[in-house]
Amino acid sequence: MTAEPIDYKNTLNLPKTDFPMRAGLPNREPGWLERWEKIGIYKKLRQKTSRKPFILHDGPPYANGNLHIGHALNKILKDMVVRSQQMMGSDARYIPGWDCHGLPIEWKIEEKYRKKGKNKDDVPVVDFRQECRKFADGWIDIQREEFKRLGITGNWENPYLTMDFKAERTIAQEFMKFLMNGTLYQGSKPVMWSPVEKTALAEAEVEYHDKESFTIWVKFEVIDNEDTELNGSQVVIWTTTPWTIPSNKAVVFGPDIKYGLYEVISRPDECWANIGDRYILADNLADGVMEKARLDDTMYRRISDITAEKLSTISLKHPLCSAEDANGEWDEIRDFRGADFVTDTEGTGFVHCAPSHGMEEYELYRELGMLPEVITYNVKDDGSFREDLPFFGGKYILSRKGGEGDANKAVIDKLIEVNGLLARGKIKHSYPHSWRSKAPVIYRNTPQWFASIDRDVGDSKDEFGTTIRERALNSIDKLVSWTPQTGRNRLYSMIETRPDWVLSRQRAWGVPLTCFVKKGALPTDSDFLLKNTAVNDRIAEAFENEGADAWYLEDSKERFLKGIVDPTEYEQVYDILDVWFDSGSTHAFVLKEREDGSDDGLADLYLEGTDQHRGWFHSSMLQSCGTNGRAPYRGVLTHGFTLDEKGMKMSKSLGNTIAPEQVVKQYGADILRLWVAQSDYTADLRIGPEILKGVSDSYRRLRNTMRFILGSLSELTESEKIEPKDMPELEQWVLHRLSELDERVRKGYSEYDFQGVFQSVFTFATVELSSFYFDIRKDVLYCDGDTLERRSARSVLDHIFVRLTAWLAPVLVFTMEEVWLERYPGDESSIHLTDMPSTPKTWLNEELAKKWTVIRQTRRAVTAALEVQRTDKVIGSSLEASPVVYLEEQETFDLLESIPFSDICITSSIKLSLDKAPEEAFSTEEVKGIKVDFQVASGEKCQRCWKILPEVTTSNPICGRCDEALKG
What we know:
Blueprint: H1 25-39, H2 41-46, E1 53-57, H3 69-87, E2 91-93, E3 97-98, H4 103-115, H5 125-149, E4 160-161, H6 165-181, E5 184-194, E6 199-200, E7 206-223, E8 234-239, E9 250-253, E10 259-264, E11 278-282, H7 283-292, E12 300-306, H8 308-311, E13 315-317, E14 333-338, E15 350-353, H9 359-367, H10 371-374, H11 407-417, E16 421-434, E17 442-451, H12 468-478, E18 481-483, H13 486-497, E19 501-502, E20 504-505, E21 516-518, H14 533-546, H15 556-561, E22 570-572, E23 576-577, H16 579-584, H17 586-592, E24 605-609, H18 616-627, E25 635-639, E26 642-643, H19 660-666, H20 669-678, E27 685-686, H21 689-712, H22 729-750, H23 754-783, H24 788-808, H25 813-823, H26 846-871, E28 884-887, H27 890-897, H28 901-905, E29 911-913, E30 922-924, E31 927-933, E32 940-941, E33 948-949, H29 960-967
Parallel strand pairs: 1-2, 1-24, 3-4, 8-11, 9-14, 18-25, 24-25, 26-27, 28-29
Antiparallel strand pairs: 5-6, 5-17, 7-8, 7-13, 7-16, 9-15, 10-11, 10-12, 13-14, 17-19, 20-23, 21-22, 28-31, 30-31, 32-33
Helix pairs in contact: 1-25, 3-20, 4-5, 6-14, 12-13, 12-18, 19-20, 20-21, 21-23, 21-24, 21-25, 22-23, 22-24, 22-26, 23-24, 24-25
């Protein structure tokens, strides 16, 4: 009776783990979220004592609508910052917040009213505000769950909301600091105005899109000039806003531009120019203007130079001067003077000035002290002309939906009628639009409330300067670190040249400008604004208990003023604060006032998209410099925008949007997080199906690495572990790499270089471990008995495990939790409650690293030679080979002789030689001084480890090493 053949596979130490190859993230991630909530991870982390706080202050998203991919990018970056800082030993607190006030929510409520046939103005303002509050509340709950689904940690139970009563109190108090320190004033100047939304807009509320506009060339006649050549000639202006012509008060020229007088000597049939007409034009632009007027170069001639001195003698009349039924509206002589902002690169070399609708013209006439003479109030808040404006009363610049109104056409038609037009056309150009309504905006002169950024604040907080601008510019360079550094330049240049801050908005849902003005006083009078601390305290107390709605209740003026001043002497201001003042004040009620805020009122980091240089970074800087004397942050990190795979901006109309929910359902949140970590966030980031497939492949390779480690560590005990000094060189080299990588990871996380961290860890895991170390040590791990080599390998794998899971936990929050729990199960166990383990510097061994660099180079030459034989189907496995390696240097020979080089090359045996290599020996340009002569291994194949060795025979089917292992 013959013995049953032994199945040696069952005698191997094969990896054992329940860790699945397939992640199933979309289905499994919600379970981990529930688990973390049950454990109370965020609260438990706060119980760790003696840690330096690290505060990332959340830039509040708007409580309106589902999350888009940009939200996901932003919050995941923040989460990676918070988690990595926590695991490196800080007390990293994160208080999520929401921006709750403002026009987008008002707009939604108004839309609801319109559908029901209701008029907002018929609804009591407090009722309207309550509906806005309810709307914001609903979206906060939705967005909170969407953010949590992405694995974002934070104080979700107690976020900050700009509409909380205490927040509204603090926002009002911050505003009243501007009131009391004298930087608040009421002024009138052109601001970006949305006729559709009937409110002023901040620069950050505007986006630029292409728009087709009317363009016209208009004639202003020279009158009462002693020079008969000039008298009766026409100064021609060019504009893309015909609707501003009724508000024209002046024309300006460039003092250094060369001008000429041009006469029409011939004309085509269809042309508004007449023979004998004389036009003053910039010489560089004259031909182009004549072409627009349908005059070729044979139809006009240049008569003479027109010098700046001659121009200074000119008086002009408006093209509508003395028009029938104009009632003298435009009969005054127009101002005509030089201005530095005029160029001869486009147009005519002259600029028509309507200072109520243009900042440059406004600034010019403000410096001249002539504003009262040139400011008009022709355009109402809805973008229509005042009813009593001749010819154009009631005409709209824009339709009620934001399209082209009837004002431009009416102006053009009237100019044609009075022979005031030389040419017209259309132009497509970049034009400001409201980012909410998507409708074009206009510049409109309106009375607004401003914060002066160049007045001395006078609060003695002068370390960084005495004015808001000085403090901001000095903070940028002396207090704040920038990631990337280019962010510094953007914010600095914006603040360096910006005008005063427009604080007021003509809306209902927000924190009101809590101030009173004296009846009959002028804005320039010292007693125009009521500055009274007792009044301010009353307002603050009411807001804390009732919210900002208290401002709008009946008899609120008497409530706040009675017994302190005479209420009948003052008027209450009902404008609301710019929402950027709201969010710019969050440092005051989050960092300063909360127990989990900052000890010194400063955030360690503000992190938002590049658009926030003109948004939240900007408003927070101005607001804090006005109240605290310096920036509210020590660091600013900016990221790019999200684009589709082709680099196109995402748009619903293009059908190329990718919602976070869509990615999470298909791939899981960890894949979205890994996409962020793999990307260079300092530039715009692309995302799409093919990119996500690539990310998924990277994830799969990492997962397989972790699965191998888990399987190889099955049943590891403390007694089995080996001290590093007793380990083989290969293991000591891996520990050296771990120590190097630990430094790289910590430095990368400290500098928010997530891409660098991930690439370093990923390369280590998939190349140095999976393709090198694991490949070599599989033989020892599977086939050895209780040897030093096997114990050392498992000890090293243990060191690798605790570090890889910790290093990757801030990125792959779900997967690393799954990996951790495979080894350390328990109701209270979590990788996210641990810190990154310290890695001994004693593991560093530069001499060993140099040696193993040579070993790995030589190995590459051997594996390349074997690959040729494998491709030619001479061998199927490297264990079938027994190559001879020819070396040119004794040093390399001695180095390779000192290690089991055949194990490193995964061959059954290997021979080293300093002899001359045969002609047919393999060599590669990549590795100099090494040649490999392929030889087939001699002997039989060990039935257990598959090495081909002379000691193995038919009667002795396993090698000595395997025999020892089986004897155990």
